[in-house]
Design a protein that fits this description.
alpha/beta, five-stranded mixed β-sheet, globular
Length: 271
């Protein structure tokens, strides 16, 4: 009789453990409805070298992109978890499930949309030609023929640069490229975002813009192509921070203006 009681006790204990395990698995699946790489956290990537959008300061990631990502995560009830990845392989990292999203000033293009799903734009910027302040030879895109142009590898500026010159110098950071404009015989021009160039001038770079932006880009948040549920949730959170004024506050903190306030009527959108 004693042996029977022991056997029944062990059987009931085993069933309780199995039931608990099943419940944990169900809860884990429910709590991680977006298929996050880390439960309870929104892990988003940026290069970390694109000041003032995403960069490291005192050992921490900061910038416009980082604060937008944190605000979106908060609206979703998640903890923000920003990470860095070189821009030239950032899409590959997303596909490999290293992080949930790219919030790193990646402009939407039809080619990139083959590998990822994109939200609505979270800001607009223009692709612009920059030269040294004392350079009076380059006054239009046509003047770049045969000149050495600096661009960030795998950026949206790479292909347009190739149509203007055969001499392209690749960089991992726009800041380094713009610095090289001021070094004799290093570069003739750089093509990057208007915002980045104007920020560099504010920080003492002896550079200037050439003409008007070549096109208008639509930086958006990228997630894995098959994770439309996460994309839609981020879109909803983005709209919420726009509606409640959080976006405007972050944008004006970094740029003294709202980066979504732009007249797109006559703009040539990069696709």
């Amino acid at each position: 009789m004693g042996k029977l009681k022991t056997l029944l006790f062990l059987l009931m204990a085993t069933m309780l453990v199995l039931a608990a395990c099943g419940e944990d698995k169900n809860n884990a699946a429910g709590d991680n409805e977006y298929g996050l790489v880390k439960k309870g956290k929104l892990t988003y990537a940026a290069s970390g070298v694109y000041k003032p959008f995403n960069f490291e300061e005192n050992g921490e990631l900061t910038g416009f992109d980082m604060e937008i990502g944190a605000a979106i995560a908060e609206k979703m009830g998640l903890e923000p978890n920003p990470v860095t990845n070189p821009f030239e392989t950032i899409l590959q990292g997303l596909v490999a499930n290293k992080y949930d999203a790219i919030i790193g000033s990646m402009a939407y293009t039809k080619e990139r949309a083959k590998q990822a799903a994109f939200t609505e734009p979270y800001y607009y910027s223009g692709g612009m030609i920059w030269v040294a302040k004392d350079n009076n030879d380059i006054k239009s895109p046509e003047d770049l023929k045969g000149k050495k142009i600096g661009v960030v590898s795998q950026s949206t500026y790479e292909e347009p640069a190739k149509t203007l010159s055969d001499d392209i110098q690749y960089y991992a950071s726009d800041v380094v490229a713009l610095q090289d404009l001021t070094i004799e015989n290093r570069l003739d021009a750089v093509i990057t975002a208007d915002i980045v160039g104007f920020e560099a001038i504010d920080n003492g770079f002896a550079i200037k813009e050439v003409g008007n932006p070549l096109w208008v880009e639509q930086p958006s948040i990228a997630v894995k192509k098959d994770n439309e549920k996460l994309r839609d949730a981020i879109d909803k959170a983005l709209q919420e921070i726009i509606d409640d004024g959080t976006y405007d506050e972050i944008s004006k903190k970094w740029f003294d203006r709202n980066l979504l306030d732009i007249d797109l009527e006559d703009a040539e959108l990069l696709e």
